[in-house]
Structure formats: C-alpha cells, structure tokens
C-alpha cells in the first residue's frame, strides 16, 4: 500500500513540478510508455492498461489527474450529495453521475450564489416585480398578476453556470473550480419575458436589460449580482419569468418565488429572487458586468497573464458540452465485462447537439453514439450507446459532443481567460474492469 502511494504521489508531483522531465522519465524518449514505467503506472492505476500503445505521449491518466484533495460533500435537507465548491457564499456542483434524469429534480440541482440566500418571503403571492427604464408604461406586477395576466408556458430549459468546466484551465483561473456539473435542465413554468416587456411597451431606445434580485453581497454592500443582456435574447420565446420548477413552487435556494430563466446563456443572467428588470439604451453596468466578468478574449491571451478585459466580449451562447451519467469516475466493473451500455446528456447553448462520440482507446478510434433530439429548444439531449472492452484492465471513457454548427469539444480547454469562462474540453472518466 505505502509503496503504491509513493508511486502515485511521485507521478503526480513529477508532472506538477517538472512536466518535461516527467514525460522523459515516464514515457522514455520515443514517447511510448513501456517496461518498468508501464508496470509502475499500471500498479498505480490498479490494473493493466490494454490500450497503453495508443496513449498519447505525456498524457497523465485520468485516474491520477484529479489532484489529491478529497472532495467535500454538501449535507443539506432536500439536497443530494453535491460537491461543495464553497460555503460562503454557498456553491455546490452536481456530480455527473447524478445528472442522469431527463428533468433535473430539485435535490440534484447545482447551487450557485454570489451573496447570501435571502429569507423566504412571508407572502409569496404578494411578491412584486418592476419593469422600468426605456418603456412607455413602467409596471409593477405581483406574482398573482403575472399568472393572471399572461400566458403560462412550461418548457424544459438548460441553465448552466458561465464558469462551468473552469477546472479545465491551466493555469488555474479564478473562481469556483467547477467540473462539468454546474448544469441543470428542469421543467420551468412561467410567463414569457417578452409578453411582459410588450405590456410595458418597449421604446425604440430599449436595447439592453439590467436584472435585479433581493439578495445582497456578503460584504452587505450592494447587490450580490446584477447582470443584463441584449434585448434580442430578452425577446426570445424561451426567456421566461419562472414561478414553478418541476411543477412545484421554486425552492428558496433556487430563487423563490420568482426567478428569470435565460437558457443557453451564462446562468448569471437567470436572476434569482427576481425583483426588477430595467430596459436600457446602453449595456447595463451592474455587479458582474464589464472587465473580465462573464467576458472572453476576442484574441487568445497568454495563459496566466493579467488583463483588464478591455477587448473582451460578453459571453453569450454557452459552448457545446457533454456529461457521462451512467458510470462515475473511478467505477469498478466485474472481471470479464466486455460490453458496456453507457449514456449521458449533451447540450450546446442556443444550438443543438448533432453528435456525441466516445473513445475507450485514448482517442485512437471514436464511436458515434445515438443522440436524441431535444424535447423542446434549449433542453439538453440524451445520448446512449454501447462500448466494447477487449479485456480486463484500466480504461478511460472519453466523450465529446459536436454542435449543430460542427464545432466539437476540444482536446484541451482553449482561450484561457482570468475568470475562467468557456472551458469545454473532452472529458475523461476512468473505469477499472476486474
Ligand atoms: N439573485 C441572484 N441571482 C442569481 C445568482 C445570485 O447569486 N443571486 N447567481 C447566478 C448564477 S452565477 C447562476 S449560475 C445561477 C445559479 O442558479 P441556481 O443556484 O439555482 O443553480 O443563478 C444566477 N442568478
Ligand atoms: Mo454562474
């Protein structure tokens, strides 16, 4: 045991401290893992590596790539075992293997707060939202009036944190180190934002929105977050003011009694504890706007460098991504397992997913999975398939989605930026057969 730990720590430390030397030592000069190094890596991983010959030179196995810190889990009434990302403010990520439901139940819904969670409203029906700024008639509407005056719609909508996938960046970017689990696809009921905006009467000058909620920043100085978007997104049919989640009142943690849902764009636009929307002639300047917040470089910048974000652009539609939900990272399967039914979800911001491919031989061959169409626009898509395993041993399931414009998840997170947006590299899950 102690021997095995030594090997594991040394491989990890070597790669962290001196990747070039690690490569030379572990892989040899010709770049093929062999002999004693191969045996040592196999021992570290807990099984032989049947596809060792197709392992790209210098690749750190997924089983070792996760760092040594054991994750902490959320323990909260009404919530599943989510991975803690931080206690103040409270942030928690859904493990990929808990994202198997087509409609994400409330207990498995990731948590992202920028400030403190407000106390529940004494009388939710009396909760009011305001619509003002560049409109002909500013409105104040109670939850009851919203329900009574406008058509109610029910849609499955994915809502993903702008920083989802951030942990894929090297060097580390600032913020919660999300894996792929800051994503949800619940069934939301509410009214279309555009119907409410039309009722207020948009002026020609109304080009942008600004969103406000009832929570305050942990410093108690000002709002937790206040973002806004182009009017075109506000007028899309799937942008809604939600009053029910999965047929129930919205849980307090997720923005009760009224929240916005702006599917496909950074989750930060989906204002929780929603109180007010302003219409503006110029982009909104609330907390979380401008600089490097929710913005990406137009041209690549040097990873790790400082930048004011002067020529960054606002992040809009989120990039294509996939999760594997049938097998957790590190799963052990009985000896002799030669075929595996696998499945997961995939989504692509405002676009759809046209393909999901899986490799079990370190990317040498890829197999097309079956991808279901979304039940409605902006819902995630179920993918399923079967993979063959030639023998017992250590395997990695690599999975990568392609969006409807032909863009694939890249091999490594691209376009590094200080606050870590847009990382959507191919994911790798380690499994051990036997
Ligand atoms: N009022 C308010 N709305 C908010 C936030 C917040 O901190 N306060 N966080 C935003 C961010 S960054 C995301 S990703 C989503 C997360 O929603 P959830 O906690 O329901 O998953 O809510 C958004 N809306
Ligand atoms: Mo977010």
UniProtKB/TrEMBL annotation:
Annotated signal peptide: none
Domain of life of the organism encoding this protein: Bacteria
GO-annotated molecular function: heme binding; molybdenum ion binding; molybdopterin cofactor binding; sulfite oxidase activity
Keywords: Metal-binding, Molybdenum, Oxidoreductase
Oxidoreductase molybdopterin-binding domain segment(s): 117-286
A Pfam family reported for this protein in Swiss-Prot or TrEMBL: Oxidored_molyb
GO biological process entries: sulfur compound metabolic process
Gene3D superfamilies: 2.60.40.650, Oxidoreductase, molybdopterin-binding domain (3.90.420.10)
Keyword Metal-binding belongs to the record: yes
InterPro entries cross-referenced by the UniProt entry: Ig_E-set, MoCF_OxRdtse_dimer, Mopterin_OxRdtase_euk, OxRdtase_Mopterin-bd_dom, OxRdtase_Mopterin-bd_sf, TAT_signal
Alphabetical list of CDD domains matching this protein: SO_family_Moco_dimer
Cofactor list: Mo-molybdopterin
Sequence intervals crossing the membrane: none
Name of the molecule in the record: Sulfite oxidase
Species assigned in the record: Neoroseomonas eburnea
